[in-house]
Amino acid sequence: MLKDTHHRIHDYLRISLTDNCNFRCTYCMPEESISLMPPQKLMQTDEIFSIAEVFTSLGVKKIRLTGGEPLVRKDFTAVVERLSMLPVQLTLTTNGMLLDRYKTTLQESGIQSVNISLDTLDPVKFLQITQRDQFQKVWNNILMCLDQGIYVKLNIVLIKGFNDDEVFDFIDLTKSLPLHLRFIEFMPFDKNEWHKDKVVHNRIVLEAVTQQYALFKLRDGKNDTDTKFGILGHTGTVSFISSLSHSFCSSCNRMRLTADGKMKNCLFGAEEFDILGAFRNGENIVPVIERCLMKKHKMLGGQFDDYTRVDPDTLQNRSMIKIGG
């Protein structure tokens, strides 16, 4: 069992497979182009499996594959085939563009839930934020997943003045489609054009939604990051991830592995612990994992406690694309 000094049990591992992506979303990638990690620095298929196996032996029950965009890795199928052998729930976060290419992989690996990032339903704004004219392709792949019976969560980062006028449009989708919406507050990372005035407070969104729709509270899991609601007459659901205005740090059970094998104990944490380096040196990585957790701060990586006073230039962290979404 993996515990930190605040008695939080950690049984959820997020593994970034790559820092590469076929989209260029501004809130994830720095405005200037980034240099990709050289292939030899990335965790290889066997290394991902062996390291994940150690984590599962320590009590990890869920693994989520992230990026970058995990599906741009040429060995994605091989990675998933290996990880599906472990006694864990295997899930995926993706921008959705390449899902049709891996339809069989998803079926055979037992991945039953995917999180798909979709910040707008407007093809013009989609092109604006991703720099790719691929809205219809992504939408078709969302429908493909639903047809396969996959549980689909849509991750929607709300940015004031960009897509905060689309909340009702998204919710209307859930009337006929079993989509599970997750409205996420815009978070500060290295050079991602964040400003406190761009944050859409989820409390305000919830108040507006409540006036328009008949919501009823759903039960939240012990370690859930979102507050969930059903909507009367709708097949889908809506939830709110208020990482800035109402953090879920007290029940956090998450650990992260970057694509180059560094362990982070918090999305906002500055410290990293070199799991891959220790593994390649033939060392026991368990003490490194435990040391990382012992350094975990009580809240938001110890970097801030009030987002309205955050200066993003003073935060010590990677860009989101190099951490893993």
UniProtKB/TrEMBL annotation:
It comes from the Bacteria. Keywords: 4Fe-4S, GTP-binding, Iron, Iron-sulfur, Lyase, Metal-binding, Molybdenum cofactor biosynthesis, Nucleotide-binding, S-adenosyl-L-methionine. Signal peptide: none annotated. SMART domains: Elp3. This is GTP 3',8-cyclase. It catalyses: GTP + AH2 + S-adenosyl-L-methionine = (8S)-3',8-cyclo-7,8-dihydroguanosine 5'-triphosphate + 5'-deoxyadenosine + L-methionine + A + H(+). It holds the Pfam family Radical_SAM. The gene is moaA.
